[in-house]
## 1
Amino acid sequence: MTPPAGTSAPRTAARLVLGAFLLFAGAAHLTFARSEFSAQVPGWLPLDADVVVLASGVVELVLGAALVLLGRYRVLVGWVVAVFFIAVFPGNIAQYVDGVSAFGLDSDGARLTRLFFQPVLVLWALWSTAAWRDRRTLRPSSTGVRPTRG
């Protein structure tokens, strides 16, 4: 398997691992971990928690598949995944603030520590897709040539 044009093998591997992670998380949202994910839906959100969990699971499946299958669109996909990770961050904050135990996070310290990993996911999405580096272009790349800066 060759990396998509304009990316290195380590970036491609990181993108594929992130895609697999999102595919697993999406499947978990829809099946065995629904109640755990429901615990992260903020109480102030005016939507049914189960609907939010199911919808976010579907989004994760789509994003995971896009990371794995749509290497030509890696820049756009990278930005969308990064924005998704930012959009779900209030759920992690609510879990900490409300002291809700889920996914083995049964102490304030564990829940607080988890908050510091969300920016890592954002950076992972941007780095693995070279979205930040190639931010001036959202077009698919069919050549190995990086866009010119001007």
## 2
Amino acid sequence: MNKFVNTRDEKDCQSDTKAIIKGLANNGGLYTPTDFKSIDINDLDNNSLENENIDYKKIAFKILSHFFDSFQNEKLKESIDLAYDKFYSKEVVPITNIGDDYLMELYHGPTSAFKDIALTMLPHLMTMSYEIEKYNKLIYILCATSGDTGKAALEGFKNVKNTFITVFYPNNSVSKIQQLQMTTTAGDNTNVVSVNSNFDKCQTIVKNAMNNRDNLLNDKIDFSSANSINIGRLIPQVAYYFSSYFRLVNRNEIKMGDNINFSVPTGNFGDILAGYFAKKLGLPIDKLICASNKNNVLTDFINTGIYDANRNFYETLSPSMDILISSNLERLLFYESNCDYDYICDIMKKLNENKKFEIKKDILLSIKNTFVSYYATDDDIINTIKSNFIDKNRLIDTHTACAAHAVLKFNKEYNSKNKTVILSTASPFKFANSVYKSITNKTNPDEFKSMKELSDLSGENIPPNLSNIDKLTIMHKDNINFEDGINYIKNKITDLAK
């Protein structure tokens, strides 16, 4: 049985089902797999390679069953079918051209963002784990979001029995469309709260609550997480790195075994860590290009080995990446330090106390073998959106623009002959005002008019889940200060226990 270890405690080793249910270890550590036996990419999905359309579900099954071996194959396959039948594209994750590069379109799910890939799957993994462990408690799911995770989690867990979910988002720091997506969510087990602070504070509320399980919980309720700190959220994302590779092989763009690069817009480091997992499994990835925005803490870290969150926090045109504490970096450092638990405890303590740490030079050199990083200012984002629309006839959102801009910088610095895939993490219609202004130099006060204008300009259809969202009823209006977060959760637990 594959085991999942706590990055901060060698003795805390859990089964896949328990790691998924717990989400975060009691001491703040992250459960992470130890078994990275290479998957032979030549055998991974030969049947689908013979077809015109790669079968994403088969690839997802191979990846998920490789890590999660407690689930019966038929139940896992059924769950994958149910999760990905919700997508508007039969391919689930299409690969299209953008100039000389490729766009991995991750936004064809029910909330038009890449988080759907994992958060349509996580409720099934949670439910199966619940049954296997014969769990008799209500699972209270805590989720912090910088914009996209929240709605995807709400949509995934909506009306799932034995669960209740609270989503915390930074007030006035998400797009109007993102806010409406969350606050109009129905379901008798959903709860949305705006916090008068930034995403890092929202994430701190969740982590502080989960680190204080003993003081907050009773015998009827337990915590879990829908953020990528939960290994059940992270593993499903590995599949789309493999599927995109196979699609390019199938189209004769690359040969099986050729190296490839991926450019990933990231704030919490989960999406790009899934690519790192894919590489550890044997996918021939040369470089993972870490694309940041003006909150460039990750770019500085990868270039210098110093992680320093003592800096100005910027609200940018790519709000889902407005993050200074990147939780999943801990998993990367765990592997790159050869699973040195004491070392991880030490640097995470420094991060918690001083918001800063520096890694050893040999670890930095090892990281640089795979990762490069660049950041984009808001002006870079605007220019990249406009140039891609005018020169390449592609409409991209503000986060994808960070990744496209990073590719330009990468190409100037490296003479790489490898194909590069840009991860497009959200529909451009989710950030309609910013994209519209970037292309037209005009300001439109109505985001829904911007969506219509963008559709007319590009010829692309507005995603069905976004087209009439302004007509839906607001279901959630709670607003709190950061300091009130734990008390809010405590009161919610009291209500749920009644």
